[in-house]
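User: Structure please.
Assistant: Input sequence and predicted structure:
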Amino acid sequence: MAKKVTPYKDSAKGKKEQVTTMFDAISGEYDGLNRVISFGIDVKWRKRVVNILKERKPKNILDIATGTGDLAINLVETGAERIVGLDISTGMLSVGRKKVNQKHLENVVEMVVGDSENLQFEDACFDAVTVAFGVRNFEHLEKGLQEIFRVLKPGGTLVILETSVPAKTPYKQGYAFYTRFILPAIGKVFSKDRSAYRYLSESASVFPHGVEFNNILEKIGFIGMENRPQTFGVASIYIATK
C-alpha cells in the first residue's frame, strides 16, 4: 500500500478536497511550469498515448483528470467522435475550455466537472479511458480504477500515463535528487502555492509503479496489462483491456 501523501500536511480536509484546492490555485500557471519541470518531454509522452489509441480507433473517449485539457485535445487525432475531459478542479477546466474554444473543438471535446471515484456515466459507455498524471491524485486508488472499469465497454482500452521511479543507476539517483530538491525549488520560485510542487514530487516518489501497479489493475479485473517505461523510467505508460 502506498504511503498517503497530501498537498497540505496541516489541513484537516481529505486528500480529494486538498487536491481540488491545490489545482484551483495553480491552474493559471500549471501549463507553463509543467513544461519547465518536465523539460517539455511530457508533450512527447502524450503523443505516444494518442498513437496507442489511434490503432484501436475508439469512437468515444473519457479523459479523467484532464486538467487543462492537453491530452483531451490531442486525442482528437485518434478520430474519435466524442471526447469527454473530466476533472474535479473548476480552475483547471476553465483554462482547458479556453484552449478547446480557441481550437474550435467544442463539437468534439467536452470539458466537465466530475469525481473520478464517482463517475456520472452509465456502465460500459466508453471505448477508451485515459488518465495522464492523475491516478496518483486519487484519494482511493482502487475505487477510482473500479469506476474506470465500470464505464469502459467490454474490450475497451485503458491507457494511463503516470510518473514512476527509475530502477537503474545513475538515473535512479538523479531522479531522486531532482524530485527532492530541484522540483520543489522551482515551485517555490515560480508558484503561488509552494506546497503544490512539494506534493507533486512526494506523491510521484511513493506511487506504485511497474509490476506493482499492473498487479492492482489485474486485481480490479483488467487483462493484457502492458507497461512501457518512458525516458529512463521517469514515467510509464500502462495499457490494459476490460
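The chain has a mean pLDDT of 91.
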